[in-house]
Amino acid sequence: MTPSRLLAQNPEVDTALRLSAVPAWAGPKDDDGDKGTDGGGRGGTETGTATKTRTKTKRPNLYRVLLLNDDYTPMEFVVLVLQDVFNKSREEAMQIMMHVHQKGVGECGVFPYEVAETKVTRVMDTARKNQHPLQCVMEKQ
Ligand code: TYC
């Protein structure tokens, strides 16, 4: 995998390495405190190549994972799914299940895209294997 692909896949880390073709002495005053504009060679004259490394962190886009009510999936199955897939305690799983049962929809958690997608897939696969019509969806927060 190429480094740029790795960076593209990881929005947390965006490292930009910039090389300037403009001689340092011809450009704007270099007072930003970085290292790397100094040629360091004989006489201390700059070479005209400036390098700057910037590390920028971005918050990931978050997605709500929602469970939908239906008339057929057993309550106990929903509680077990909430405990297993979303690491809920039995008590919290019961509360969420009852909320979905009464209101029609409820939140199981909020996650970065790929984590949310994996949880939706796990719920849907488990439901299908057990022949329950339970539906789980994700929406951008
Ligand atoms: N309504 C279902 C029943 O009465 C229980 C249920 C709860 C189903 C939550 C789905 O996401 C759900 N058996």
Give a verbal description of the structure.
It is a single chain. The longest helix has 17 residues, at 113-129. The chain has helices at residues 3-9, 75-86, 90-103, 113-129, and strands at residues 14-20, 50-56, 62-68, 105-112, 135-140. The chain has 141 residues and is of the alpha+beta class. Residues 1-44 have low confidence and may be disordered. The strands form 2 sheets. The chain has a 3-stranded antiparallel β-sheet. The structure holds L-tyrosinamide. L-tyrosinamide is lined by residues 67-71, 73-75, 78, 97, 100-101, 134.
Describe this protein with a few key phrases:
141 residues; disordered N terminus; 3-stranded antiparallel beta sheet; binds L-tyrosinamide; two-stranded antiparallel sheet; elongated; 35% helix; 5 strands; alpha+beta
